[in-house]
Amino acid sequence: MTTTAAAPAQEQRKLPRPFWALWAGTLVNRLGTMVMPFTGVYLTQARGFSVAVAGLAMTLFGVGSLISQLVAGLLTDRIGRRVTLSGSMVATAAVMLALGYSSGLATILAGMFVLGLLIDAYRPASSALVADLVAPSLRPKAFGLLFWAINLGYAVAMVAGGWLAHLGFSWLFFADAVTCVVFAALVWRAVPETRPLHDETATGGFGAVLRDRTMVAFTVITFGQALVYLQTVTMLPVAMTDVAGLDTREFGMAMALNGILIVAFQPLVSGWLGRYDLPRVMALGLAVMAAGFAATAYATTAAHLALTVALWTTGEIITAGIGGTIVAALAPAHLRGGTRGCSASRGRSRPWSRRWPAAGCSR
């Protein structure tokens, strides 16, 4: 029993110090993630726009976010992981403050598009840093710990954001901006640049991704899952407050259950699940999430919403760290940012029936 209990702690001690700086910065940043979950509510209640306009603003945000992953991935591989991550966080803070003072429709719509370009631009750089810094056998643990930090911050942010929104929406923009700057400073000071020298003989880029049937299939599945999941921070807040009649505090408390459950249970199961066939574990988690999101359509009270949150959170717990580990295993080092996973440069595609090692593949 002692040996089993000590194993996770021993694995965590093997993780390098720069990873823990990245982990701490991610946690701080997510503690301030208050704007996006309440943007729809902010636009309809504080600025007086219609639900249709709020939907348009969130659509522009989504378009910007989609573009940002491609651009940020290329920047991650070309100019470096640390510069891309820190620069995008500082720029995000500036746009947050500008949006907090914007009142005109055109300005807000433009700001939402730019925010989409910037707010998630750190993701390719963060994933590449983990793949660069952490040994393959420890990647499920590392990605799981990042996922845990994100949801610990999210749980606190949803409760705090609900109360701050009740006091005044401007507080949300200031809190988010400050934590973005802190994240940028931590990474800049404590995380070294890990971008490998470019191999001129290696094939790569998006053409390599498109030739990799496994990566294309994985990307399509991930895109579909993200499309549904992002409704929890875009139109679900509007539906629950404007249609179901919940106030921001009730909605924040119900949604905070997502982070609380992940913080409580995800560290206990991530290492165990990482020993199994990774695509099958991923598929199981996605199926549970799908059931939870389908049930959300029938939620009309805070209690009902909390029950559906608990269901799709169970699916999140199952998939925690698995997707990142699969991508890190597929991607060659010089394309970890731009492709976030591409095996075509090895000269062949991988069938889905391939048996994955428990902790990814080594090079």
TrEMBL record:
Cell membrane recorded as keyword: yes
Source species, domain of life: Bacteria
SUPFAM superfamilies named among the record's database cross-references: MFS general substrate transporter
Region feature (Disordered): 341-363
A GO cellular component entry from the record: plasma membrane
Domain Major facilitator superfamily (MFS) profile: 18-363
Entry keywords, A to Z: Cell membrane, Membrane, Transmembrane, Transmembrane helix, Transport
Membrane topology: Multi-pass membrane protein
Gene3D superfamilies cross-referenced by the UniProt entry: MFS general substrate transporter like domains
Membrane-traversing stretches: 20-43, 49-71, 105-122, 143-165, 171-191, 216-239, 251-269, 281-299, 305-331
InterPro entries, sorted: MFS (IPR011701), MFS_dom (IPR020846), MFS_trans_sf (IPR036259), MFS_Transporters (IPR050171)
PANTHER family cross-referenced by the UniProt entry: MULTIDRUG RESISTANCE PROTEIN MDTH, RESISTANCE PROTEIN MDTM, PUTATIVE-RELATED-RELATED
Stated name of the protein: MFS transporter
Organism: Phytohabitans houttuyneae
